[in-house]
Amino acid sequence: MRMAGKEKSETKEERRKRLAAELRANLARRKAQARARRAGEADAREDGIPAAKGEKSGG
After folding, report:
1. What does residue 33 show for φ and ψ, rounded to 5 degrees?
2. 20 to 30 A from 2, CA-CA: which of 9, 22, 30, 38?
3. Residue 2: inside a domain, yes or no?
4. Closest CA to 30 of 13, 40, 43
């Protein structure tokens, strides 16, 4: 339900640009996470998964 008299805070173009930027940032984070896992390093996040010790997984 729309509120009468309320003006949109952002235009469609602004929203599209904002969402595109968020998607790019998310993709960059996911790529960095995947690279770190391939290299056997721990996830950079505090709540991340610790690196495996010793054996590396093959692909």
Report:
1. -65, -45
2. 22
3. no
4. 43
